[in-house]
């Protein structure tokens, strides 16, 4: 974003209290890809000493929300982005800091075309959660919609 406008990470931290609570770190935020880090914080550990599943869920959901903001920022005056449903899979033990990488599952232009046609488009966002060694510890697919303001 420009020098005068807040970054996607700053917007997320200002509007989503859980982003601040978990100290999420937005390291990349474009309409094509968002990368968010969850620092290793003992106050959010589970019974095996890694990040609690709720913290991992929030990490992935926040990454998905950030890519929706980045991709559809110019549509926010006429539609509200809302999550519709999600599926989460926890695959491997998560320990230490984690990274969530989100990508859109449909082209932005296709979603906007549906919105232009008076529809309420739905689109998936895919998120991988990885440990420092690169192992995927979990993944999430969140289906979002752009609900027209009318």
TrEMBL record:
It comes from the Bacteria. InterPro entries: DUF4442 (IPR027961), HotDog_dom_sf (IPR029069). SUPFAM superfamilies: Thioesterase/thiol ester dehydrase-isomerase. It holds the Pfam family DUF4442. Coiled coil: none annotated. This is DUF4442 domain-containing protein. It comes from Streptomyces chumphonensis.
């Amino acid at each position: 974003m420009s020098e005068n406008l807040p970054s996607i990470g700053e917007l997320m931290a200002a509007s989503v209290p859980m982003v601040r609570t978990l100290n999420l770190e937005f390291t990349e935020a474009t309409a094509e890809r968002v990368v968010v880090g969850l620092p290793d914080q003992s106050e959010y550990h589970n019974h095996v000493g890694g990040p609690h599943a709720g913290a991992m869920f929030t990490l992935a959901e926040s990454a998905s929300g950030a890519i929706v903001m980045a991709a559809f920022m110019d549509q926010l005056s006429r539609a509200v982005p809302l999550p519709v449903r999600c599926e989460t899979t926890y695959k491997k033990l998560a320990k230490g800091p984690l990274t969530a990488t989100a990508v859109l599952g449909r082209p932005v232009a296709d979603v906007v075309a549906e919105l232009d046609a008076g529809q309420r488009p739905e689109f998936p966002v895919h998120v991988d959660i990885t440990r420092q060694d690169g192992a995927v510890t979990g993944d999430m697919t969140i289906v979002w919609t752009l609900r027209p303001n009318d």
